[in-house]
Design goal:
9 strands, 5-stranded mixed β-sheet, alpha+beta, Lipoprotein, signal, 174 residues
Length: 174
């Protein structure tokens, strides 16, 4: 019995050593995923951009989706406007964004025409006025299997991060 007792003691102590290990590479415990909607209009006065304040860790990621009817499309996104009579042809612009730990700026880039004068009223309403964007703030790497998340699929992101998108706070900018 005296020979077995040291082995039992060693097994008991090693159980506590491994169970108290805080080195968990599968989770980012200091970040939780969250969402916010922002609406705004792109105008010449705001330089076709608006900014929303956020507060995230520098290692976190911001995903931005634009409301497109009853769906969400991830940006950056290029928009190709159809030829329309007297307006220039090959009209293209990009919805884009940049972010840091304190702000997200959503903007229109690379326009090859004058957005203020070379769009129809319907195009201005569809692409510039009262645009709604959803900001999804997520950990940079939630787990080792995060590579399996298709970030371009809004519904897959909501499911993967277990987000509730039924009551998202909305902020109006500019």
């Amino acid at each position: 019995m005296k020979k077995i007792l040291p082995f039992l003691f060693l097994a008991f102590v090693s159980l506590f050593i491994f169970s108290c290990d805080n080195n968990d590479d599968n989770t980012d415990s200091d970040t939780y995923s969250r969402m916010r909607d922002i609406t705004g209009s792109f105008t010449n006065g705001n330089g076709y951009a608006f900014t929303q304040g956020i507060n995230i860790n520098q290692t976190d990621v911001v995903l931005v989706y634009r409301a497109a009817g009853n769906a969400w499309q991830q940006i950056p996104k290029s928009v190709y406007l159809p030829n329309s009579g007297t307006l220039p042809t090959n009209r293209v612009f990009d919805y884009n964004f940049v972010f840091d730990s304190q702000n997200v700026q959503i903007r229109i880039d690379d326009e090859n025409f004058n957005l203020g004068t070379e769009m129809t009223a319907a195009e201005t309403n569809d692409y510039l006025n009262n645009q709604r964007f959803r900001l999804v703030l997520v950990p940079a790497q939630a787990s080792k299997s995060a590579n399996s998340v298709d970030y371009s699929d809004y519904n897959a992101v909501v499911k993967y991060y277990n987000l509730d998108d039924t009551n998202v706070k909305t902020t109006k900018v500019n």
